[in-house]
Design goal:
The protein is α+β, with helices and mostly antiparallel strands. The protein has 21 helices and 16 strands. The strands form five sheets. Strands 9, 10, 13, 14, 15 and 16 form a six-stranded antiparallel β-sheet that branches. Strands 3-8-6-7 form a four-stranded antiparallel β-sheet, with helices on both faces. Strand 11 and strand 12 form a beta hairpin. Helix 5 packs across helix 7.
């Protein structure tokens, strides 16, 4: 035995087993190790081990992301319903998908900020009207009160300071190319005093609407990209649209000006060129000899640049127009688009709720655990610099995943649920689900302020990180009065909180109504969904993991719960932490590890020779047992795959024409150079 498993060792000694303290010895009946590479690949038929081989398909962040992309092929579900969308930066296609996703969410954030601003303004108007009605009811002398009211209104106009520094709205420019970019701080206060209507940049809103409508078309038809031919022909957000959205930073209540010079696009920096069409994929032999074709391409390029410059000038002029009140028809369009996104996007809840939308993403090293190297960002450039993706460096080793912006908080803190799952065989796939889990909390209160994004004690719940926080041992009291000790809760504490919360929550959605109608929200709603996700993940990865007999594996699933009490899988860990770090984990680990012996030894022996009653498996419940597959795909991964063929050579006539064309091109080039020299000499 390697690693720290005293409860397992004691339980086996009580059964009459003998402990072999030679870790390298090949004489054993059971070898229990911390890492899978501590076990020899070839084990004897009478030996047992606690690890399978090639677990990276689910135990690394990159492997889990790739496996869940194929989830819909293995079960009647989709990864968008169980796993916050993630992108592998080592894949150019996935990288491009992340860029489109981030840019598209920036447009969605603009529209949400509009509705949020209008809702805030209407609520403030209602409160101010209530205050005015109360003051009116206190007036006793109508004549005196009228004079006082007139005087007060005059003073308000002349002397009362505005709630924010007011900047004059810039007038439209005749030549937008000569307008410098305005600083955001100079644009604060264009709303004027609080009695004036809110002002918005209509052109920016229309850009955001256009992007969100394109996003809706993709959600309605998954084959939209395929219909375009390459998937790269129609970008979700064009470079010009992204310039405006990026420059606005989610603000839609001010006028903007794009920078004078067109900045290099991120796609160019990343060398993500559009897939060329058939005309552009002609052989180099034909291109070398086609001077006229090159001239046509140069002319088309000049036309494209001129059109882009003209569109850019027009966009600058539109964006620089003075802000104006939001038109009713435009507001209805925005509300309709957001309503459609909410109904069609299965992860719309993760993009931000009514309180705030930050477009936050979390960057994770592709193959590390315990929160090492994880960072949170709401700025695209800072995220890519952190991953070193722009230069093609270590960006290939990173996964970026959507941060859950509408998550359930307890005691104003983030938390996740650690759930143990046991696989005793991959063929047939046999899965056990432990009937308990526990909650892990952050030691600091949650805030989505940008300055807090680099604070791991706010955003990461890993015990290996939180135990070093100064607030780790503080007494924390949840909203229902239950204490949180050492940043952990038992399943019983968490289930009690859900019931308490639902009793005080208005059921505004079908999901919340389902939870509210349940007598035990966790046992009846949340836990069955966690069990379902655990099984589906293993089904998606079964073809990538070696099906070695006489082995089993313990996995630690991490779930987070959103504001509608829906569990989301975050990651899967091999060899989950089994130390007695807190009172909660000590009780959990001692009970669950000893119960594993009941499944892997007692139940296994009974299945071989079923004599007497079926043995008890403790807290481990059989969640799934699939059919036996005669030739699993995993058994075929060791074969060599190769292709055979002959080199294709161009016919002799084509090669001759290519050589003649190359000579003609060289002669034409020499002639142009000679003509230039003569002109210089004459001048």
């Amino acid at each position: 035995m390697t690693g720290w498993y005293p409860c397992v060792k004691d339980a086996l000694l009580e059964r009459g087993w003998h402990f072999n303290d030679d870790r390298e010895s090949t004489f054993y009946d059971l070898k229990w190790t911390l890492r899978s590479n501590d076990i020899d690949k070839g084990i004897k038929p009478n030996q047992l081990t606690n690890h399978f081989l090639k677990n990276t398909a689910i135990t690394t962040k990159a492997g889990l992301t790739r496996s869940l992309c194929e989830l819909h092929w293995h079960c009647d579900d989709h990864s968008d319903h169980v796993y916050p969308r993630a992108y592998d930066l080592s894949s150019p296609h996935s990288f491009r998908g992340f860029l489109d996703d981030f840019r598209g969410l920036e447009a969605e954030k603009c529209l949400k900020n509009v509705i949020r601003s209008l809702a805030g303004a209407s609520s403030s108007d209602e409160s101010s009207s209530e205050d005015s009605s109360e003051s009116d009811s206190e007036v006793t002398d109508p004549a005196a009160s009228a004079d006082e009211m007139n005087m007060e209104s005059t003073d308000d106009v002349a002397e009362a300071p505005a709630p924010a520094p007011v900047a004059e709205a810039p007038a439209p420019a005749d030549d937008a190319s000569d307008i410098d970019s305005l600083e955001m701080d100079e644009l604060d206060g264009v709303l004027g005093d609080k009695e004036a209507p809110l002002l918005f940049n209509e052109e920016l809103l229309r850009i955001a609407l256009r992007v969100c409508r394109k996003k809706l078309r993709v959600l309605v038809d998954d084959d939209t990209e395929l219909d375009g031919g390459s998937g790269y022909s129609d970008r979700l957000v064009t470079d010009l649209e992204w310039e405006a959205l990026r420059h606005a930073q989610g603000r839609v209540d001010c006028s903007l000006a794009l920078p004078k010079d067109m900045p290099p696009t991120l796609d160019d920096l990343l060398h993500l060129k559009d897939v060329p069409d058939e005309e552009e994929t002609r052989s180099s032999l034909d291109q070398a000899g086609s001077i006229l074709a090159r001239a046509r391409e140069d002319k088309l390029e000049r036309i494209r640049k001129a059109e882009l410059t003209e569109r850019r000038k027009e966009a600058r002029r539109n964006l620089m127009r003075a802000p104006s009140p939001l038109k009713d028809d435009l507001r209805k369009e925005i509300e309709a688009v957001l309503a459609q996104l909410s109904s069609l996007d299965p992860q719309h809840q993760l993009n931000g709720g009514p309180a705030s939308t930050r477009n936050t993403w979390i960057a994770k090293p592709a193959a590390k655990s315990r929160g090492r190297g994880i960072a949170t960002f709401d700025d695209l450039d800072r995220l890519l610099d952190h991953c070193d993706a722009k230069t093609g460096g270590s960006g290939a080793l990173w996964i970026v995943q959507k941060y859950m912006e509408s998550q359930l908080l307890i005691a104003e803190r983030k938390f996740d649920l650690r759930q143990w799952v046991l696989v005793t065989d991959w063929n047939p796939l046999t899965i056990y689900f432990y009937d308990e889990c526990y909650a892990r909390f952050t030691s600091h209160k949650f805030t989505d302020a940008r300055e807090s994004l680099e604070n791991p004690f706010v955003h990461l719940v890993n015990n290996s990180i939180q135990k070093d926080g100064e607030n780790f041992h503080d007494d924390i009291e949840a909203e229902n009065g239950v204490s949180i000790e050492d940043c952990m809760w038992t399943q019983e504490d968490f289930a009690g909180f859900l019931d308490w919360k639902m009793a005080r929550t208005d059921a505004t959605t079908d999901r919340l109504r389902k939870c509210k109608d349940s007598d035990d929200v966790f046992t009846d709603v949340v836990q069955p969904e966690m069990r379902k996700i655990a099984v589906e993940v293993l089904q998606a990865a079964r073809d990538s993991i070696e099906h070695r007999k006489n082995s089993w594996e313990l996995y630690g699933y991490d779930f987070m719960v959103d504001a509608e009490l829906r569990p989301w899988l975050i990651e899967v860990n091999s060899s989950p932490a089994c130390d007695y770090s807190t009172a909660v984990t000590e009780r959990y680990v001692k009970k669950a590890l000893v119960d594993i012996l009941k499944v892997t030894i007692d139940k296994r022996e009974w299945e071989r020779t079923p004599v007497g009653d079926e043995p008890d498996t403790g807290g481990w419940q059989l969640a799934h047992k699939g059919p036996f597959v005669e030739t699993p795909i995993a058994s075929l991964t060791g074969g060599d795959i190769y292709a055979e063929g002959k080199k294709v050579e161009a016919p002799r006539a084509i090669r001759a024409r290519a050589r003649a064309a190359a000579k003609a091109a060289a002669a034409a080039k020499r002639l142009r150079e000679e003509r230039k020299r003569r002109e210089v000499a004459e001048r």
